[in-house]
Amino acid sequence: MDGAHPDFADCASEPIRVPGGIQAHGALVVVDPDSLRVLQASANAETVLGLRLVPGQVSTIHAIPGTDVDPMIGEMLRWLRGGAESTFLRTARLARRHTQVIGHRTPQGVILEFEEGPEHENETLAALYPRLGRFVNAIEPVTDIRAIAATAARETREITGFNRVLVYSFDEEWNGTVIAEDGDGVLPSYLDLRFPASDIPAQARELYRLNRLRLIPDVDYLISPIVPAASPADGRPLDLSFAGLRSVSPVHLQYMQNMETAASMSISILVDGKLWGLISCHNRAPKRVNAQVRTACDFLGQTLSLQIGARERHAHASRRIELKRTESELLARLANSDSFEAGLAANPEAWMGLTGAQGAAVVLDGEVKTTGRTPTPAQLRQLAAWLEDNAEDDVFVTRSLSESWPEAEAFTDVASGLIAASISQIRASYVMWFRPEVVHTVTWGGDPRKAMAPGPDRRFGPRRSFERWKEVVHRRSQPWSAAETASAADFRNAIVNFVLRQAEQRAQLSDELARSNRELESFSYSISHDLRAPFRHIVGYAELLSERESQLDEKSRHYLDSIVEAALSAGRLVDDLLSFSQLGRQSLSPIAVDMNKLIEETRQSLLPDAAGREVEWRIGNLPAAWGDGILLRQALLNLMDNALKYSRTRSPAVIEVRGDDRPEETVYTIRDNGVGFDMAYLAKLFGVFQRLHRSEDFEGTGIGLAIVKRVIERHGGWIRAEGETGEGATFTFGLPKQEAVNG
Amino acid sequence: MADLRPILLVEDNAKDLELTLAALAKCQLANSIVVVRDGAEALDYLYERGGHSGRTPGDPAVVLLDLKLPKVDGLEVLAQVKGDPDRRQIPVVMLTSSREERDLIQSYERGVNAFVVKPVDFNAFFEAIQDLGMFWAVLNEPPPRGVVGR
Asked: Which residues, 6+ apart, have CB-to-CB distance to A517 below 8 Å?
């Protein structure tokens, strides 16, 4: 909707319950229930009833002339003694007129209202009864609320004879839509028109709720004031909330005149104590409706209320049952998932089905998972942040998100409707459901922006035009039903426990991990001490033995040498394993490392291994690296050692080292022309104990490249290998620059 | 120049002891070698108490101290010696199987003179012992700073 409706500021403060007067088509007398003394009366009581009240003189109800007065008083006294709260109603012949007497108790006395009664018996309650019975039977099997309302409109018009009867239903913002109509063509049709909430202000709605029936037989009625104005009971003006003759707001009378109706009656439709709608009757000419007919209409209204309530509750309950089934199925599947968010993503139909949404998302610690039509992950994170600051309830529901949060304009096409359930007290984590914008047309009974307009007298009054006025409504989704909202709330409660349990399990797991890490650490420490010692002993004793036995034959010497060799290689294995395990724990001390120098030192240390071979070193200019010098030396040594080792069969062996200075990183390539490897085994290349060659052909522990990979990864870098059997191998690794590491 | 003060060897492992003694024997040092088998006995010797009360007085030329020892461990012995103004000038060389960084750091924090990781290779071990013997027992210069044997 564009723009706000002007408020009926005047109406809101109007004394509609204590107007100080009544519509003069009847008379009103307030009686003390104990003494039957007349406390107050409308000024027209003398002309209508012949009740003469002399100021300063005490009168009782007996002062009303007429033969029927005493029986009426007798009946009233029985009603009062019975303590019943219901309305007292009887027809009596008073002041030579057939008069209907209606009474109700108030703290200010018993209010008796006198109206001219019907002359014809066909308008008595008894005559109306069969008709009401038929109505109840007719609507019983009907499930559609609009159809029931149409029947009620037709019945009401037939009973009352009004030109037009509307059934009006309020939406969540108190705009009223005409859902059913019956008319004789005298007045224009308002079917399907919408009337703004401002047409019936809040205090008027409250009065409709308390007093189910209100009648204005003639819009040009005279007002008969209550005398005296202040109640002798409490000194305050007489409360006419429940009086049928109550004089109404002048604004409302103006509204009726603008609508070109002279008489109106409304009957409230209450569902679960809440004003659901109205049966609204209008007549072009003034029109009286006697008390029996009004009672019949009230009965009809109550029947309609009960039926609507029952239909709504039934619809709500069956939807709830349906959604509950979806929820329990989904929860069962979530319980078997690694995490609830993974479980949701794996069951998109049930997830969205929980609220009848077209898209759903979960934002958990900034991690986003979605299904169906949703905003982008970045938008969802922003939405979660907005919800954290603005949504007070556990479940936030809207059908027009952009009304609360203008940024949502960007994605009204997927998320005009939102249900967001908060699933963590600490972090901005939500399960969300979305509905797209549904552009639709609303036909207003007159431009709602002109609900109040200045009249010719320059005073603000109700609008003059009830011409159909079409409004195209944007940025709104289909509304979420109460069942769907409740389903989201239920699911949230289930999930919150689930999330909590998951968090506990994670905490427990990380404790276990820390413990097993500590165990592993002490384990490797023990290895360092205890496993190395026996190998050292073997080598030591074997060496001592070979020194003592200079006369050993060739075979014995070979055996002894093999023992030493085996023990040495086992010792190296333990050493390599330990340095590999230490890599994960050692802290890095990054500095700018001169890679040219490091490569040269590495090359020098390998030269003894290359003795007697023809090796061609092609070493380019290398950019400085940002890293831990000791670890990088280890990595380079392993790579260069491999290059030299696997090119053993080549003459000349060519070992090439190149560097590349890129904006974010420095990249180094070490290439050899050796035996290479089959790319099919690439995945195994960097694994611990993974060997692609027989150890008889190429010695080594099978840990070297695993160490290289770990060193590079500890630096936040990457490494990859390329090769071909017999065609050499190329290892390339990149290290992030200092700015990249710190920034 | 020859110093006949003894070398104190603290070693609990019988095999390591035998191999270390064999290596020292190959150095043909004139120093006698006193062997103790745990940290408590090492302290007794150094403080001339317990089973070592009444021994020939004087500090050893060097203490070759294993890290992992029964009763009182090597680091504790080191801390006591280096914390005692009367004995902190005795050179202490840590001999250990451990390649753990934290052992190395803790030893240096306690003022060790050298730290030797026993190599698996006997010849390397022999060389290390020989160097130690020559350096600490024969030359017996005041301990130079920052000598790290690895």
From this structure: none
Q: Which residues neighbour B75 within 8 Å (Cβ) at sequence distance 6 or greater?
A: B67, B103, B106, B107, B110
Instruction: State the ipTM, two decimals.
Output: 0.74
Are A540 and B98 an interchain contact pair (Cβ–Cβ within 8 Å)? Answer: no
Q: Which amino acid is at A178?
A: V
In A56-124, where does DSSP find H-type helix?
Answer: 69-81
- Specify the residue for token string 């109206």: A115
Dihedral sign for Cα atoms in the order A475, A477, A482, A488:
negative
Any B CB within 8 A of A520 CB: no
Q: Which residue carries 């797209």 as its tokens?
A: A436
Helices (H), chain B: 14-27, 39-46, 74-82, 101-109, 122-132
Here the tokens at position A272 are 């679960």
∠ CA B90-B95-B101, rounded to 5°: 110
- Residues A223-254 pLDDT 10s: 999 999 999 999 999 999 999 999 998 888 98
What are the structure tokens assigned to A597, written together? Answer: 């120098």
pLDDT at A128: 80
The answer for residues whose C-beta is within 8 angstroms of residue B119's C-beta and 6 or more apart is A536, B125, B128
Residue A360's beta-bridge partner residues?
A: A371, A433
Q: How far apart are CA A509 and CA B41, in angstroms?
A: 45
DSSP secondary structure code for residue A449 in this structure:
G
- What percent of chain A has a predicted confidence (pLDDT) above 90? 42
Contacts of B67 in chain A (CB under 8 A): 529
Query: Residue holding tokens 């090769």?
Result: A723
Dig out the tokens for B88 from the structure. Answer: 């902190």
The DSSP H or E segment spanning A713 is helix A704-714
Q: Which of B99, B100, B106, B125 to mutate to test the interface with A (most CBs of A within 10 A)?
A: B99
Q: Is the minimum CB–CB distance between A522 and chain B shorter than 8 Å?
A: no
Neighbours of A219 (CB within 10 A): 20
Residue A649 is classified by DSSP as: T
DSSP 8-state assignment for residue A480: P
Tally Cβ neighbours within 10 Å of residue B85. Answer: 7
- Six-digit token pair at A517? 């890490």
pLDDT tens figures, A547-590: 887 788 888 888 888 888 888 888 888 877 777 777 766 677 88
Closest to A733 in 3D by CA, of A659, A644, A645, A652: A659
**8 Å CB contact between A677 and A657:** no
Of B15, B68, B122, the CB nearest to A529: B68
